[in-house]
Specification:
The chain is of the alpha/beta class. It has helices at 45-53, 75-78, 99-107, 121-131, 151-163, 181-195, 209-214, 233-238, 241-248; strands at 2-11, 19-29, 34-38, 60-65, 68-69, 82-85, 169-173, 201-205, 218-223, 226-232.
Length: 257
């Protein structure tokens, strides 16, 4: 489903500020896999995601998604197959539009609609039924502006918008880091729910090593622009935060939470 070969990204090449952010990354994911990504600040986690999403161009290597070479494809064209949720709950929604209007934008991003009403009765019924899955009572607030939602509600809605059009890949960049513990727990539960029973690949960056081992079915550790660890199955099941710290000499208080 996702196949990356020899990916290299260099910032400010040829200057005193040159930074090799990704060093010949080889990485692949099968349909339905959920990979959690850990690593210290500057390890290359977000850069990898940004290269996949098309935010950053790549200097070397190729990226294939669902059999298509997207290495040079524009970011807005990749968006038809890629859903993304950021750390900031304010980034994923149009704050001055209603819940149902936001859902309509996300739901129709892969569709050519021509000239027709933005929201049909059928659309409204569909969105109301789907948003009930969030179990937050938002199905009774569909005409409210998104700015009135709490951070947790807004991030849950953003996550739902990212998957409503059935993308091939979901990118989660520390999407619970800005939430309180209760809201973070709820959003992670929804993440598990949406990732199960589908062919969608999920990549989740987190500084929380405990969450990285508890969610998904595969964990990678990035250090200095490279993938230093890639574990799954029984090896991952047996791994603990303590053994991770000892084996890879991790020293980052934020990652111990």
């Amino acid at each position: 489903m996702l196949d990356i070969k020899g990916l290299v990204k260099v910032f400010s090449p040829g200057t005193v500020n040159q930074k090799i952010a990704l060093k010949s990354i080889d990485f692949s994911m099968k349909a339905g896999e959920f990979v959690t990504i850990i690593g210290s600040n500057g390890a290359g986690k977000s850069t990898l995601m940004n290269c996949i999403a098309g935010v950053h161009s790549t200097d070397e290597g190729t990226i294939y998604l669902d059999g298509q070479n997207i290495t040079r494809l524009a970011e807005h064209k990749r968006a038809a197959k890629i859903g993304r949720v950021f750390q900031d709950p304010l980034k994923g929604t149009a704050f001055d539009m209603t819940i149902e209007e936001n859902l309509s934008i996300a739901y129709n991003k892969q569709r050519s609609r021509g000239f027709q009403p933005g929201l049909s009765k059928k659309d409204r019924e569909l969105f109301r039924e789907k948003v009930r899955l969030l179990d937050m009572g938002l199905e009774d607030r569909m005409k409210e502006k998104v700015r009135l939602l709490s951070g947790g509600q807004r991030q849950a809605l953003t996550l739902f918008m990212a998957v409503i059009a059935n993308p091939k890949l979901l990118l989660l960049d520390e999407h619970t880091a800005a939430l309180d513990p209760a809201a973070a727990k709820k959003v992670l539960e929804l993440t598990d729910l949406f990732s199960q029973g589908s062919d969608m690949c999920t990549m989740m960056i987190t500084h929380n090593m405990k969450a990285a081992l508890e969610h998904g079915n595969r964990t990678i550790l990035m250090q200095d622009g490279q993938i230093k660890m890639d574990i799954t199955g029984q090896e991952r099941d047996a791994m603990t935060v303590e053994t991770l710290i000892e084996k890879f000499e991790i020293n980052n208080d934020r990652m111990l939470l």
